[in-house]
Predict the structure.
Amino acid sequence: MEALLQEITMLPRVRGAFFSMAEPSLLFSEMPANYQPETMKQLGASLERIFRMNGPCRLSVNSVEMLFDDSLLLAKQAGPGSTLVIIAEPDTNFDLLNMTSAMLIGELRNSAEKIRQNPAKAQQVMGQKRKLDYEEAKEEEPLKSALPIFQESLARAIGPIAAMVIRETVEKWLATGECDKSRFPALAEALCREIEDPPMEQEFRANIAKVL
């Protein structure tokens, strides 16, 4: 479930995503730490009530989009009692976001069904996870030895703003999962999206290949 949410959160201008389930009552979150679980559950339940109106009102609503001054919300129904919610910047590429989330809905629905079959195991796994912040992660392997290579290679491509971009991108990457070398390709792709020059992007990929 987390891996699917991470695919969404690594898109440009996406703040985070969460998946809310009613039965069993579970919340899978890849949101920044300042988003409270209870608030997310309440939001998920409110959106689920909209989807439940399909039957009585003879509608077929399976997606809700809300644009605010400071954010964009996209919600998609992923089966009975299950809702995917994505929070992004208001100027995000909505077509890309909508297409990516639509492609993942089937997999999210299948994951939710497996969780319903064994909710105790899902809760146990969720309780074992611990996310590091940037200051902790940069002092521990595997990021400690890889970070200078990422930063030096990015600086060659985009100049002195590389340090700031690295920190912001790594923080977002850490917020979406564990600090594990198996997730370095996702971090690399996020950094590549910051390079607007194709030849420089190709050089960046070549320079970081040894740490992937």
In short: The mean pLDDT is 88.
